[in-house]
């Protein structure tokens, strides 16, 4: 078995959502392939310390803000690497190609360079995943009111919606889901349908309850598949199945979990550390919690009540 080489990798992002890629030099392994900047973690270093050092050496920039994100492993012919990805949103200096033959700012849904280094390729889909998930509550607000709020939220930029309506009667649920999915599609948003014990054939976007997740032995069909999780075992199952994301909570006190202690941010960070898929923080969070969530390893936040506050007519 090859020794695992730990690598710090940087997803350096600008306000417009673009990220920086570097093209590997001709004399290296995988010459001319594109990669996220970074490098090997040296003895005595933490991955974060390696990240700061490597970006100074490779790009000539000084990191001022970086969040832990996801971790992926890949076995090359020459090495077994464990990539610790960080999202770098703050830095000083202008990136310069000190070791790469070229640099390019790219968008995940419109990549204009290639090929990508194999270990980095799966990260591109994760970068297409929005940072905010809104969860519908048509059973509480009423179908018409929820559809109106969804329309306003989509117009304001919402791009990820979990359609979760266990409280609606079957016929009303079908009416709501059909209309809501059409709204999401028209807006270019991802609308994941929360599924019960029977998985619906042909659904392209689906969200799994934990009880269903833990019974599966392979990833269900679908372009986007995620799951609700409450503990590390469920998160590891979601990662092992190759799901696109997980939702973990409840992080903060919430009226729907009275008497149940929240995870807290430290508990959330402990449970998501080292996972290979993006995880949303849920439970009592609001848009104001985005920065603290990402500082503790969250991809973003998922909200029920908080998603619709201020949108009611």
Describe this structure in words.
- With 313 residues, the chain is of the alpha/beta class.
- The protein folds into two domains: 4-123, Nucleoside Triphosphate Pyrophosphohydrolase; 132-308, Alpha-Beta Barrel (TIM Barrel), CATH 3.20.20.70.
- It has helices at residues 47-59, 123-127, 138-141, 143-155, 170-187, 210-213, 232-240, 264-272, 290-295, 305-308; strands at residues 4-12, 19-23, 34-35, 38-40, 62-75, 80-92, 102-106, 132-135, 160-163, 190-194, 205-208, 224-229, 245-248, 279-282, 300-303.
- The strands form three sheets. An eight-stranded parallel β-barrel has the order 8-9-10-11-12-13-14-15. It has a four-stranded mixed beta sheet with strand order 4-1-6-5, with helices on one face. The chain has a three-stranded antiparallel beta sheet with strand order 3-2-7, with no helix packed on it.
- A hairpin with a 4-residue loop joins β5 (62-75) and β6.
- α4 (143-155) runs parallel beside α5 (170-187).
- The longest helix is centred in the middle third of the chain and has 18 residues, at 170-187.
- The chain is elongated.
- The mean pLDDT is 92.
- InterPro entries: Aldolase_TIM, Mutator_MutT, MutT-like, Nudix_hydrolase, NUDIX_hydrolase-like_dom_sf, NUDIX_hydrolase_CS, NUDIX_hydrolase_dom, ThiamineP_synth_sf.
- Keywords: DNA damage, DNA repair, DNA replication, Hydrolase, Magnesium, Metal-binding, Mutator protein.
- One of its GO terms (molecular function) is 8-oxo-7,8-dihydroguanosine triphosphate pyrophosphatase activity.
- Belongs to the Nudix hydrolase family.
- This is 8-oxo-dGTP diphosphatase.
């Amino acid at each position: 078995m090859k020794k695992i080489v730990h690598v710090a990798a940087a997803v350096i992002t600008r306000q417009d959502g673009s990220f920086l890629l570097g093209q590997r030099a001709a004399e290296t392994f995988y010459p001319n392939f594109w990669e996220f900047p970074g490098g090997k973690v040296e003895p005595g270093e933490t991955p974060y310390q390696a990240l700061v050092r490597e970006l100074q050496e490779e790009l000539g920039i000084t990191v001022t803000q970086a969040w832990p994100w996801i971790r992926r492993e890949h076995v090359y012919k020459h090495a077994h690497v464990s990539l610790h990805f960080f999202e770098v949103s703050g830095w000083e200096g202008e990136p310069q190609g000190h070791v790469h033959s070229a640099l390019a700012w790219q968008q995940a849904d419109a990549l204009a360079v290639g090929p990508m280094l194999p270990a980095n390729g799966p990260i591109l889909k994760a970068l297409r995943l929005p940072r905010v998930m809104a969860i519908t509550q048509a059973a509480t607000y009423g179908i018409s009111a929820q559809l109106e709020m969804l329309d306003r939220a989509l117009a304001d930029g919402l791009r990820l919606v979990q359609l979760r309506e266990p409280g609606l009667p079957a016929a009303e649920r079908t009416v709501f889901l059909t209309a809501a999915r059409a709204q999401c599609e028209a807006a270019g948003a991802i609308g994941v349908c929360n599924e019960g014990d029977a998985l619906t054939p042909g659904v392209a976007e689906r969200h799994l309850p934990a009880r269903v997740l833990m019974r599966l032995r392979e990833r269900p069909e679908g372009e986007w598949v995620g799951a609700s999780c409450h503990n590390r075992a469920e998160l590891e199952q979601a990662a092992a199945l190759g799901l696109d994301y997980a939702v973990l909570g409840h992080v903060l006190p919430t009226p729907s979990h009275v008497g149940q202690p929240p995870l807290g941010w430290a508990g959330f960070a402990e449970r998501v550390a080292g996972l290979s898929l993006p995880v949303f923080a849920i439970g009592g969070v609001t848009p104001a919690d985005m920065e603290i969530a990402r500082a503790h390893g969250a991809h973003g936040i998922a909200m029920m009540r908080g998603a619709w506050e201020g949108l009611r007519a």
